[in-house]
Design brief:
- This protein has about 210 residues and is mainly alpha-helical.
- It is built from ten helices and no strands.
- Helix 1 runs parallel beside helix 9 and helix 4 crosses helix 8.
- The two termini are about 35 Å apart.
- The relative contact order is 0.24.
């Protein structure tokens, strides 16, 4: 399979890319601020599963199609951007109800499943992620060994483990700040609105971002 040196080099590269706040981090932070710790962690998990679906797609050859097709890339870009804007608007509109909804949100299992699904949709519709995987994963595959697709899947596991750890730290840190704001209805409303605006801004950024070709 893959040599230890290749795995280590890929892990270092992934870490350097992941620790720089990007769309996934901003989305997780926005959910943490608007809905709290549990929502942030469910979002992280859903986003990671969505990202791994992209890794599977790249290993199966779909990543090359997205990388080369401006139409497919644009469709994914607008789908992901529109969904983020929708979630941001919903968070903004419900910001004044956060205080009364906080206990129910912390205890509700159904909300957790929905948050996981929302994180998954954002992760799987992120065109930048699939283009990154399509460009980077093949560089670390040892063509002298068998099963290059399995090598990509293994590299994807390494990337996701690092991303899960990093995004969780961001989400828990933001949720801790939210707990302080939760002591005041006005402060909680403000931070919930800020989380919604952050998601709206992120959605617009994703939608208007072009590609180098």
């Amino acid at each position: 399979m893959i040599s230890a040196d290749r795995l280590l080099a890929f892990a270092v590269m992934s870490f350097l890319l992941i620790i720089i706040p990007g769309p996934s981090v901003l989305f997780v932070v926005g959910r943490a601020l608007s809905q709290g710790r549990r929502a942030a962690l469910m979002t992280v998990a859903g986003n990671a599963v969505g990202a791994y679906v992209l890794i599977v797609a790249v290993a199966a050859g779909v990543g090359e199609l997205v990388e080369r097709s401006a139409l497919v890339f644009t469709a994914l870009k607008f789908a992901g951007g529109a969904y983020l804007v929708y979630l941001g608007v919903a968070a903004w509109r419900s910001r004044r109800a956060l205080s009364s909804a906080l206990p129910a949100a912390q205890a509700g299992a159904g909300g957790g499943k929905r948050t996981f699904w929302e994180g998954f949709v954002v992760g799987v519709t992120n065109p930048k992620t699939i283009v990154f995987f399509a460009a980077v994963l093949p560089q670390f595959v040892d063509r002298g060994q068998q099963h290059p697709a399995l090598q990509m899947l293994l590299l994807g596991v390494v990337f996701n483990v690092i991303a899960l750890a990093s995004d969780s730290v961001w989400g828990l840190t933001a949720a801790t700040a939210r707990d302080w704001f939760a002591r005041s209805p006005e402060r909680l409303s403000m931070v919930g609105g800020a989380g919604g605006l952050a998601m709206i801004g992120l959605g617009v950024t994703v939608a208007v971002t072009g590609r180098s070709d």
